[in-house]
Each structure stands twice: as C-alpha cells, then as structure tokens.
Amino acid sequence: MLQVYTGNGKGKTTAAIGLAIRALGAGKRIFLMQFMKSLAYSEQNILRGFAPQLELRTSGKPFFIAKEGMLSEEEQEAWGKDIVIFPPGKPPKDYVALISAGFAEAEEAYCSGNYDMVILDELNPALFFGLLPRERAEALMAKLREQTELVVTGRNAPAWLLERADLVTEMKEIRHYYAKGIAARPGIEN
Fold first, then answer.
1. Regions of the chain where pLDDT drops below 50
2. Rounded mean pLDDT of the chain?
3. N or C terminus of the chain: which is more exposed, having fewer CB within 10 Å?
4. Which domain range does residue 109 map to?
5. Global pTM exceeds 0.85
6. Neighbours of 11 (CB within 10 A)
C-alpha cells in the first residue's frame, strides 16, 4: 500500500515513526529516508541504534528553504540565517543534487526487496520546492511492490500523489503554540 501523511498540522513524521515502531514489533524491516533534514532531530538519536531492522538515512541541509514571495519581510527576518530563499523554479543546485542522491538511495532500498516498509519522510516538501522532479517520484510509485509498504510524509502533498495513495491522512492544525512565539523544543518538535 501507499500511505500519505500530509497537512499543516503537527504529527506527520511522528505518525510515520509510530508506524515503523509497530512494523518492527511485527518483525518487519524498515528503511527510513528523511529528506530536507540533517542529523539534528531528537528522534534520530534513538532511531539510529534502535533496532538492526531499521535503517535511517538523511538527505538534507541544516537550514530551511522558501521560494521568493512565500514569506513576509517579518517572517524572513525572524528566520534570519536559518533560511535560504530562492527564485521560483530555481532551487539551490547543491540541494537538488543532495535530494536526488537521497532519493536514489531510497529508490534502491525500495526496489531491493530487503525492506518491508520504506518511509520517505518530507518527500512532499521536496516535491513542492522543486528539489525532486515529479516524474522521478511517479516512476517509483509505478513500481509499487505488494510486499513493501511505502509511506510518504510532509506538507503540500501533490494532488497526483493523493489520488494514487491507498491511505491519505491530513493533519489539520487547529492551534499551535508557535503562534505565541514558542520555538521548536527538543524531544517535542525536533
């Protein structure tokens, strides 16, 4: 099956990791690729040594990105040096190459038959920002294997992916303390 966890609410990666834990409990083997994330998140500390049946890989840089016009001047100032802004359709080439290499690794893992579940965490934003071409992701979706669950997470899931998925869960934000200026906290958001 193809599962997609998307939406503006918190919990997409958390849901996928919970699914991985459940699968491990059933004796399954998991490959987890985290796109657009460096080794800076708390869950990675435990997942890297959690179980030999879980392989965690990352393909990201230690900053966020945005297309020109997405953020107000105030938002840009608040992000400071932690964000790279690029013209629409022209994402940073080094980031495109990094995501491409990570996707190739995930594709190889999926097609190998060595894993019962492959999680493509934050693939949706990589597609949204043009870091990975739609055609490349669609080619992987065309290879769906009956014995391997494919899980995709992240905001801004494209319509074509939602239509193709067997399960779609949208996390809807009702309220978030970020609006009060509370930053991401270790062990909760990062």
1. none
2. 91
3. N
4. 2-61+91-180
5. yes
6. 14
